[in-house]
Amino acid sequence: MMKGYEDTMRVLVVEDERMLAGAIAEWLRDDSHAVDTVHDGAAALERISVNDYDVVVLDRDLPLVHGDDVCKELVESESTARVLMLTAAAEIGDRVTGLSLGADDYLAKPFAFAELAARVIALGRRSRPAVPPVLRRAGITLDPARREVFRNGRFVPLSKKEFAVLSELLRADGAVVSAERLLEKAWDEHTDPFTGAVRLAILKLRRKLAEPPVVETVPGTGYRIA
Fold it and tell me: Rounded to an integer, what distance in angstroms lies between the CA atom of residue 8 and that of residue 185?
């Protein structure tokens, strides 16, 4: 069951304790976020260089490259990703140091997963341009807070991935969204880009949204809601 859906985000979890990293990722995925995990600072820098993340959950004490250096690299690269720094040190001085490096928020271990998820959502809002609380276009109404979709007043039940894809299409406000963009925002890096996951989600969306057709394919470019 979903624990408090707000909006779908791409999140990178950087944590050298593998069981903890997996637990964080599972919790966030249950809230419909696309989550990648790495276990050292060098791998984090590599992922950040190739993927566009909304939020980075960053353990401070990392092997290979320290979390402080990962945070500084993010700031210097002018990345729009927001950083939630994790650490076992709970002293005020440690928190001040982490925030002074450019972290947007700070959470001491041990923590409640519900609190971490809430902080990720709050940071994700800050990483994106402002959007209407309820998205509307072509007779479709999508409420991110309630995770509800209506088409011409009729409730449309959607899976998490279908909801994420529709959110991106509505957020584009009529512009074309590439399949690569949809894959990046709704799935994680373990998804094979050649599986046809986006195409299948679009087909299911079209069927559920019913007539008249609303999701348009732009050959060689992507999809849009006209």
Answer: 7
Amino acid at 166: L
Q: What is the mean pLDDT of residues 157-176?
A: 92
**Integer Cα distance of 183 and 34 in angstroms:** 10
Please indicate, yes or no, whether the overall pTM of this predicted structure exceeds 0.70. no
Count of C-beta atoms within a 10 Å radius of residue 125: 14
Q: Are 21 and 44 in contact (CB under 8 A)?
A: no
- Classify 113 as helix, strand or coil: helix
At a CB cut-off of 8 Å and minimum separation 6, what does 50 contact?
Answer: none
Are residue 86 and residue 146 in the same domain, yes or no?
no
Q: Which of 76, 99, 127 is the last residue of a domain?
A: 127
Is 4 part of any domain? Answer: no
If asked whether residues 148 and 198 sit together in one domain, one would say yes
Residue 162: CATH number of its domain? 1.10.10.10
What does the pLDDT read at residue 92?
A: 62
Residue range(s) defining the domain that contains residue 54: 10-127
For tokens 């986006």, name the residue: 198
Count Cβ atoms below 10 Å from residue 1 Cβ, excluding itself.
Answer: 3
The DSSP output letter for 128 is: S
- Residue-wise DSSP of 41-70: HHHHHHHHHHS--SEEEEESS-SSS-HHHH
Instruction: Write the single-letter amino acid at 153.
Output: G
